């Protein structure tokens, strides 16, 4: 069995991943939520993220944005929620993430 931990996106991402590694977890469940773990910031820190994961021998899985609703009945909200999820999926692909968590709403 493997044990992972999810970062808290209010804290600086690199330090969060480092702390999860220091605690001996097998993988990080990388949330893609504001303010510190939005896709743009994740892509901008790609090299450092991968280095930390390698240093601690950790895997990584992704957690798509929590507070968007891809099943919302309002088309405008559903559309922007899908756009946010696509941006997160693209960031995950940059990191080589193969498993993602989705909360449709």
Strand element count? 4
Q: Indicate the radius of gyration in whole angstroms.
A: 14 Å
- Structural class by helix and strand composition: alpha/beta
- Give unreliable regions as ranges: none
Q: In which range does the helix fraction lie?
A: 40-55%
Quote the average pLDDT.
Answer: 97
The number of domains is 1
Distance N to C terminus = 29 Å
Number of helices: 4
Q: How big a fraction of the residues is strand? A: 5-15%
Sequence of secondary-structure elements: EHEHHEHE
Structure report:
This protein has 105 residues and is of the alpha/beta class. The chain has one domain (4-101). It has four helices and four strands, in the order βαβααβαβ. The protein has helices at residues 13-22, 39-44, 46-56, 75-95, and strands at 4-6, 27-31, 59-63, 100-101. A four-stranded parallel sheet has the order 1-2-3-4, with helices on one face.
